[in-house]
Amino acid sequence: MSGPLHLKTLVPDAVRFALERDARLLVPVGTCEQHGPHLPLGCDTVIVERLADDLSAAFDILRAPTIEYGVNTATKRTYPGNATVRRKTLHRWMNDLIASWEEAGVDTFIILTAHGHDPHQEALSTLRTRRARTFTVDVFSLDFTGHLEEADAPAHGSELDTSLMLYLAPQLVRMDLAQDFVLPARQRTRYRRGAHGSLPERSPGSVGRPTLATREKGERLYKMIYERISTRVLGVPTFA
User: Fold this and answer.
1) Within 13 Å of residue 202, how many CA atoms lie on the same side as its CB?
2) How many other CB atoms sit within 10 Å of the CB of residue 225?
3) For the chain, where are the E strands, in sequence order?
4) 8-state DSSP, 175
5) Angle 215-229/159-168 helices, nearest 10 degrees?
6) C-alpha to C-alpha distance for 147 and 152, rounded to whole angstroms
7) pLDDT tens, residue by residue, 106-162
8) From CA 53, how far away is CA 80, in angstroms rounded?
9) How far apart are CA 146 and CA 143, in angstroms?
């Protein structure tokens, strides 16, 4: 398996040859927002960047530069370093980029994100092309039953995110600072990833139980995510 095909590192002829062989383009879209006191602001970005790299290398298809910012979940207090854009800003930005790449020969866009906030998803799932197909994949929308101890619990910077980061970038995780924040049963239905309006005021910046996370869970979760996406979107699972 060769390395990922990073669009930004290739000369124009190399890009043209790659698109003539396979006209798909992977586009990772991250966020810059808090995920609790134990995870980096770029948690979502790190996850989709690694996924885009692995898929690009396995399928020998182009991978676009990462879009580092998305539509963040609203918070009742300020978290240092948080940076967000509005839904219409992300939508217009992505439409402009996709139009340029489509003109250059891309016929299929696979947009990878790990952030289920409704306005963020709306911006990415309503993009317009002339002829190209667009697939928007939220890696956290998969069914994790059997892979997590609290698969149905509201999650943000919790067992899922933290386990993945312990596997993908353990040097960025501060488990000594992890804090569980479990919502009362009456609030669980109202607060879901993507459906919630804002983080609860008493939250440490995360919701759920990050202390349940392990590197071993993260490895199993990542391989499951990779294989589901590669099978359903790109073709055949080829994770080594």
Assistant:
1) 6
2) 23
3) 5-6, 24-29, 62-63, 108-113, 133-138
4) G
5) 90
6) 11
7) 999 999 999 988 999 999 999 999 999 999 999 998 999 889 998 777 678 999 999
8) 29
9) 9
Q: What would the DSSP string read from start to end of 49-99? A: HHHHHHHHHHHT-EEPPPB----PPB-SS--TT-B---HHHHHHHHHHHHH
Tokens standing for residue 100: 């340029």
**pLDDT(237) > 90:** no
pLDDT exceeds cutoff 80 at 169: yes
What is the C-alpha to C-alpha distance for residues 60 and 3, in angstroms, rounded to an integer?
A: 8
- Those residues with Cβ within 8 angstroms of residue 68's Cβ, 6 or more apart along the chain or in another chain: 30, 32, 42, 45
DSSP 124: H
* 18 membership: H or E segment, kind and range: helix 12-21
CA-CA distance, 189 to 85, in Å (whole number)? 27
Architecture of domain 5-234: 3-Layer(aba) Sandwich (3.40)
State the Cα torsion 190-203-48-225 to the nearest 10°: -60
Is 70 exceeded by the pLDDT of residue 187?
no
pLDDT in tens, 57-75: 999 999 999 999 999 988 8
Examine the pLDDT at 166 and tell me if it is beyond 90.
yes
Q: How far apart, in Å, are the Cα atoms of 240 and each of 6, 53, 54, 58, 151?
A: 20, 14, 10, 9, 26
Structure tokens at 94: 């992505």
Q: Which residue's entry shows tokens 């009456």?
A: 186
